[in-house]
Structures are given as structure tokens and as C-alpha cells.
């Protein structure tokens, strides 16, 4: 099997027609069709379902298509790195909104300083969506908070961060002090992310262990909008320490929740090592290094810092 065969197959699937694909790459249709048939012969399986209107991938073809895209991207990155004689390529990294608040800009800056020829693509999304994107090979790396949906992931525990109660200072019945307990804030109206969000699952489980249910009055799946709602003063929220990076000092009352079982683990996950390009491997090391540096310098409050 040759790289050009992979390129031919990917182009056919993208075009939805052998004829259109042949025209786009300057080949005779019969020659391209022969290449696809030869590829199917080598794999001993049918990759395309042919019809009068074009072609669509079979289940085997779709699986092969996804891996072929990954292989071609790595091959292109390798060529670029060799041509420039230094590490280069493209890396996609996923961060949740809260993690991006504290880690996104420092990570981007560190990558630009250490590997200026690596093109970085940062994606901000819910942790559950990041897991789906990683499984779909749309991301190389991500920081998530649970790994139940892992499919051949490489998983590196980074740190565990505490949770904070955040509310406007004049909110009624707000407990005083820089620390609090979950049982002492169970009566407060809360605005939280929806159950799809990993943070919501943590909070729900913590209340469940106390035999209580959080008093959720609104669900908001965007950090900026959620904090705008908190600023109105009718509801508080529970957020990890990373989310507080975008809160100006004195802007809100923030009390660390000291329940021992309530913290958010941060897991650096990636495709398996044999699937990662050299650029992605380098980005993974930088992401871990920047995370731990922020924690050691006191810029990211943590419960536990896991060594590499």
C-alpha cells in the first residue's frame, strides 16, 4: 500500500464520485477506478458502494477513510518538518471553557516560543464534546475530567483542582468566610452547567453523598454567560479554581468548598502514542509543563499536583 493510494481513496470519498475525483487530480477515471479496486484487493474488503449517482463508503470504507486522513496528515507534517529541518506540523488541542480561562493563553505563548513552526488549533468546548471529538480523531489532545469514554487513549493525570462557591457579595443568605462546606450552601439557588458537563456530574454526586439535591434554578453551558447570570445576584454558582482566573479581584464573593471528596481531576488525554505525530507529542509535553508550572507558581489553585 502506498501513500498515493490513500490520497486517491480520500479524494474519492470527499468528492463522492470517482469521476469528479479523477478530474480534480488530473487522472483518467478508469485509472483511478483501477487504483481503488487494487486497494480493495489488497485489503480484501469492499471500501466503496458504487451506484449510478456516485460512491459512498461502506462501514469498512468509513473506518479506513478516518485512519487514512490521520496517516496523510502525519505524512504531510513529516515532510514539512524535514523540509524546514526543525519540528513542524499541525496539532489540534481541546480545552473546556474553565480550563481555557487559565491555561489557553500561557500554553499558546509557550508553544510559539518553543515550537514556532507548529501550527496550533485550539478548540474550546464542553468536556463531553471534547471526548467525542477525540474519539472521532478530530483532536490530537484534550484536557478532560473523566475517561470513561476512552478508546485507546493515552491518559496522564495532571492535577486536581478545588471548587469554589461564587456569588455576588450582596446575595441574600450567603455564608460568610473564605471557605465553606457543601452542606452550608445547599439552600442557595445555583446556576450550573447542564448534566452533559463534567462539572455538573461532580456537583450532583457530591450532593448525593450528603443525601441532598442541588437547588439548580438555571442551566448555562457557557462560562461567560453563566458568570453574567451570577452577577445579577439572584443565584450563585460552583466553579473550579481555573474558572476564577477571569474574575477580577473583589468582583465576586468566592469561598473555597472544603469537602474532601469535592475536587475536579484534570486528565491530559491524547490519541495513543503510536498515532501521535512528533508535533503532537511535543505539544503534549508543553501542555503538561505549562499546567504544572501554573500550579507550582500559585496561579492555578490545586488540591493535588501529579508528577510527570
TrEMBL record:
Gene3D superfamilies: 3.40.190.290, Winged helix-like DNA-binding domain superfamily/Winged helix DNA-binding domain
Transmembrane segments: none
GO molecular function, one term: DNA binding
Stretches assigned to the HTH lysR-type domain: 1-58
GO BP terms, alphabetized: regulation of DNA-templated transcription initiation
Keywords associated with the record: Activator, DNA-binding, Transcription, Transcription regulation
UniProt family annotation: Belongs to the LysR transcriptional regulatory family.
UniProt protein name: HTH lysR-type domain-containing protein
